[in-house]
Amino acid sequence: MAPGTVPLNIFAWNQKLTKYVKDGQSQKAMQLFQQLQREGVRSNKFTFVPVIKACAGLGTLEDSRLVHKQLIQSGYVVTWNAMILGHVKCGQGQKALELFQQMQQEGMQPDSVTFVGVLNACASVVAIEEGRCVHQQIIQSGLQSDVFVCNNLVDMYAKCGSVEEAWRVFNKMPSQDVITWNAVALGHVKCGQGEKALELFQQMQQEGVRPNSVTFVGVLNACASVVALEEGRCVHQQIIQSGCESEVFVGSSLVDMYAKCGSIEEAWRVFNKICHLEMWSLGMP
């Protein structure tokens, strides 16, 4: 520290770290953390929150290992899960899988949150073989009936293109919620099976499962893929009744569906309505 400089307390260090991470300057955050250590400032648990996010933003496994080691030395119970989920959130699925391997090599047992993070990592990098291995670990851990874990298993298989395996997990679940149905329906859309996705949309409602905005986006994509204009109009009516029409992703999917089904006039009507709603929400006439 330069002569005459007033030393920062840990609260001020934490504020600076958080600001760097919030501004997307992960490298500067890590440099600041290293400076903090050089100057002998004792970190607290709030220091490590932005530092973990900075590691995830940089995607460097070595930094992650060093930070995790310091967490252990500091006596804070964390967070392999936070590290894994942070890397997944930042699009570093392969790094998350490496961390998953490392945590087990160091004798740490994964829990349901770990498995959810790793399944998301597998889905993000289309690593179906790794996903199958994780599935076996889930069974061995006795978590194969955990709805939260199973929803992510279904999603992983669907996003990796194995709808058949997604269905096997789906059918073994003690119960299915809208998230489960969305995962298999979107899997069929991704695999070019739009008609099957539309059938599932009808079936889920017959079974009393209420669609949400994600469901509507998926079914509109299915309508667009098979040019099912009448079905798309019926879905549009349901969207209006559910109050989801003003949601950006739903509105955009409606415009896309009408355009791909050849009804440019209806696409424009939805587009203009969305623009009007956005202007109204901003207080514009």
From TrEMBL:
Domain of life from the UniProt record: Eukaryota
Protein name, as recorded: Pentatricopeptide repeat-containing protein
PANTHER family found in the cross-reference section: OS07G0578800 PROTEIN-RELATED, OS08G0340900 PROTEIN
Cited InterPro entries: PPR_At4g14850-like_plant, PPR_rpt, TPR-like_helical_dom_sf
Source organism per UniProt: Sphagnum troendelagicum
NCBIfam families reported in the protein's UniProt record: PPR
Alphabetical list of SUPFAM superfamilies matching this protein: TPR-like
Gene3D superfamilies xref list: Tetratricopeptide repeat domain
PPR repeats: 9-43, 76-110, 146-176, 177-211
Record keywords: Repeat
